[in-house]
Amino acid sequence: MSPDSGLAGQPSSSTAVGQNITLHIGVLEQPYRSNSKTAVSISTGDVASILEAKYGLFTAFYKMYEQRIADGLATSMQGAIEAMMMGHSIDPWGAGMQQIQRDFRDFISSRQAERAGITGTPTKAALRGVNHRLAHPYRKSNPRRPSFLDTGLLMSSGRAWITVG
To answer: Dihedral angle at the C-alpha atoms of 137, 142, 147, 149, nearest 10 degrees?
Structure first.
């Protein structure tokens, strides 16, 4: 994971020993495949940084889902405590992180991102139906697609993680 790729990390609380617990929302760094040998290589981290700078995509997601994220993390922690009391070892944040990642994919694929008040959405490419998953990505007859969902790689590489320190 690239902690500098399109982050919308928000401090969520402090522990008794004064350490901050920070939630990061970003992407798993992966290269986009290029059809041209002269094309500049670009990664999901590069695209995430561009989309955050231009549209505030990750920040808008966090703001729209803030309460659901907090509730999910509390439930995740509660489940982990219960599991530990039964003698099991478990990631206290695991279930919460998985929920955030599912919600991020839904945020894009269901067009919620376009209804989140993000200036410039729906994007022109989405309205034109530009879709690099198709044989003819720029064909005028391509159906409209959700903004921020071209190849699907950025959406599927969305990740959430916690750092303590």
So the answer is: -50
Phi first, then psi: what are they for 22, rounded to 5°? -120, 130
Question: E strands along the chain, which residues?
Answer: 10-14, 20-27, 158-164
Per the rule left: phi > 0, alpha: psi between -120 and 50, beta: everything else, 80 is alpha
Q: Which tens digits make up the pLDDT trace of 130-155?
A: 999 899 999 999 999 999 999 999 99
Burial 76-105 (b: 16+ CB within 10 A, else e): beeebeeeeeeeeeeebbebbbebbbebbb
The pLDDT score that the predictor gives to residue 39 is 65
